[in-house]
Amino acid sequence: MRKPFVLLIFSLVFAFVSCSKNNNDDNSSETKNMDNLKISSGFSWKTTKDYNFTLTSPVTGLVELSDDKGSVYYKAMLTENQQYTFKISLPNILKQVNIRISGKTETIVLESDNINFTFTK
């Protein structure tokens, strides 16, 4: 009879000790909200960037725009020796994209908003 009583007392003490109010008061009178953030005037909240691509190919075929991990962002059919123009929004984190046509892959560095690229045979 003594063991169940001791176990009950121990459980009650443990329950009362572990249940304490969590006060995260930092004694700061400053209210934390978006109005108090200090943000540079040059900061852009955009997570994407717009690019204008103009592609030309010596062969007719399906062109594919992707990143290094294989995520495809755009596909289109190019006609031999005709310019193909499109606008696309890509993640800001991308610094380069892979462009592939007829089994040939080229890497394009995203340095400018306007990208002109001509595939070679």
Describe the fold and architecture:
- With 121 residues, the chain is mostly beta strands.
- The protein has a domain of 71 residues: Immunoglobulin-like (Sandwich), CATH 2.60.40.
- 14% of the residues lie in helices and 39% in strands.
- The chain contains 1 helix and 7 strands.
- A 4-stranded antiparallel beta sheet has the order 3-2-5-6, with no helix packed on it. The chain has a 3-stranded mixed beta sheet with strand order 4-1-7, with no helix packed on it.
- Strand 2 and strand 3 form a beta hairpin.
- The longest helix has 17 residues.
- The N and C termini lie far apart (92 Å).
Which secondary structure elements does this structure contain, and how are they paired or packed?
Blueprint: H1 2-18, E1 48-56, E2 61-66, E3 72-78, E4 84-91, E5 96-101, E6 104-109, E7 114-118
Number of helices: 1
Report low-confidence residues grouped into runs of 5 or more: none
Q: Which band does the percent of strand residues land in?
A: 35-45%
How do the strands line up in the largest sheet?
3-2-5-6
Query: What would you call the shape?
Result: elongated
> How many strands appear in the DSSP assignment?
7
Please give the CATH class of the domain at 48-118.
Mainly Beta
As a whole number of angstroms, the C-alpha radius of gyration is 30 Å
N-to-C CA distance: 92 Å
What would CATH call the architecture of the domain at 48-118? Sandwich
Q: State the order of secondary-structure elements, H for helix, E for strand.
A: HEEEEEEE
